[in-house]
């Protein structure tokens, strides 16, 4: 039998020919991010794409849901149906900023544009067919497309992209999509989303309601469970923030305690009572603090901010961020020696616990259902402690930092490899 001799590569070529690398058809170099307008959800998508090295090769889309008037009562509808209902109402009432009265109460109207008045109206609105067509038509030249989405409003859109271009995309849904998880290539969701399946979760659920509460089955192989939320506060981002905020935060007396105050949620209800408790506890630890910085979120009620402002606005050790840009959040994560965070925010707690610095939680006793399980998991892992007001802030403690975002990125790479695909950022 005659020996077959392969042709030699061109002179000076040191790169393995693409035919031996499975070619462009198996290499992901680009990503699409689909957000829902909520920072907590969108930051998870952006953080994962950053961890995969595709931040500079990504396109950001945001689902636009009609807002204002009767629309505030229709948020439970799928986005596509909600838009049809909104269109009919506009045709009937003849004005895009329609007002309606329910139960004798007039509902306020707001702009319906994407981003409203916060300068985000230029963000692209996604179209599943258009994105799927793009993935299909550019596949031979650009390779597969990574799609990362998060939040209830993005579920039908992301699954439609997967259905329309199954061989050209890899779709990741962050946060539990409730049903039909096989619509996605990978689901990334926190472990506490499966609280309804635990013995305690079953006890807290009426028998006739169990079939309506998701998830109904344990996580499948293509579900990756995290401890907390994904985020953008990776080591690279914190190094940049440390440099950016050095002039303002570097000279502050140590230890620097950062307090992040969120707002009550359906499963973590609180009000002025928690604000008063927080104020008393902060006064108790101020003697052991070099400086204290406080930030509120957009969800923080006025009754909470008013109590904190009254107690600390004139204190020489305390600075309260006024909500104007630039936002010092990443700078705080980089420069703080310890954190106090209200229990309602999974995102803020996850970010702080990725630093390995002391994190104290206030208000966990107000949380119910799966959020109670979330706090227990964090406490059992030793990454948070309850804030009681008896702490000496000069006494530090540490723990292995949470690394959910990097671990999720590793799971994505493994899932791609199982499909015969790989990542290669440009």
TrEMBL record:
<dbReference type="Pfam" id="PF06258">
    <property type="entry name" value="Mito_fiss_Elm1"/>
</dbReference>
<protein>
    <recommendedName>
        <fullName>Mitochondrial fission protein ELM1</fullName>
    </recommendedName>
</protein>
<dbReference type="InterPro" id="IPR009367">
    <property type="entry name" value="Elm1-like"/>
</dbReference>
């Amino acid at each position: 039998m005659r020996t077959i001799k392969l042709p030699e590569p061109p002179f000076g070529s040191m790169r393995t020919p693409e035919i031996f690398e499975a070619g462009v058809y198996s290499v992901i170099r680009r990503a699409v991010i689909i957000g829902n307008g909520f920072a907590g959800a969108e930051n998870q998508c952006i953080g994962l794409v950053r961890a995969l090295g595709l931040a500079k090769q990504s396109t950001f889309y945001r689902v636009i849901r009609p807002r204002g008037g009767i629309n505030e009562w229709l948020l439970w509808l799928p986005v596509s149906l909600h838009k049809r209902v909104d269109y009919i109402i506009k045709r009937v009432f003849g004005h895009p900023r329609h007002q309606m009265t329910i139960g004798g109460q007039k509902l306020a109207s707001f702009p319906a544009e994407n981003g409203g008045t916060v300068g985000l109206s230029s963000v692209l609105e996604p179209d599943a067919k258009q994105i799927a067509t793009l993935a299909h038509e550019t596949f031979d030249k650009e390779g597969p497309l990574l799609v990362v989405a998060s939040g209830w409003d993005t579920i039908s859109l992301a699954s439609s992209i997967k259905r329309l271009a199954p061989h050209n995309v890899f779709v990741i849904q962050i946060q539990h999509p409730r049903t039909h998880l096989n619509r996605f290539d990978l689901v990334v969701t926190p472990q506490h989303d499966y609280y309804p399946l635990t013995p305690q979760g079953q006890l807290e659920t009426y028998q006739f309601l169990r079939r309506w509460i998701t998830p109904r089955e344990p996580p499948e192989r293509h579900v990756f469970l995290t401890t907390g939320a994904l985020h953008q506060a990776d080591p690279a981002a914190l190094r940049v923030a440390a440099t950016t905020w050095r002039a303002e935060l570097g000279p502050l007396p140590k230890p620097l305690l950062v307090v992040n105050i969120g707002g009550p949620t359906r499963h973590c209800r609180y009000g002025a009572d928690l604000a008063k408790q927080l104020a008393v506890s902060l006064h108790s630890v101020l003697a052991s603090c070099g400086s204290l910085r406080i930030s509120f979120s957009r969800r923080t009620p006025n009754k909470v901010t008013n109590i904190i402002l009254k107690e600390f606005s004139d204190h020489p050790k305390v600075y309260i961020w006024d909500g104007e840009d630039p936002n010092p959040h990443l700078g705080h994560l980089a420069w703080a020696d310890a954190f106090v965070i209200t229990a309602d925010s999974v995102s803020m707690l996850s970010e702080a616990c990725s630093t390995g610095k002391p994190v104290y939680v206030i208000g966990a006793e107000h949380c119910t259902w799966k959020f109670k399980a979330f706090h227990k998991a964090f406490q059992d892992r030793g990454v948070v402690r309850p804030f009681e007001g008896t702490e000496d802030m000069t006494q530090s403690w540490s723990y292995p930092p949470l690394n959910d975002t990097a671990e999720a990125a590793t799971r994505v790479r493994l899932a791609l490899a199982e499909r015969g695909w790989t990542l290669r950022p440009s």
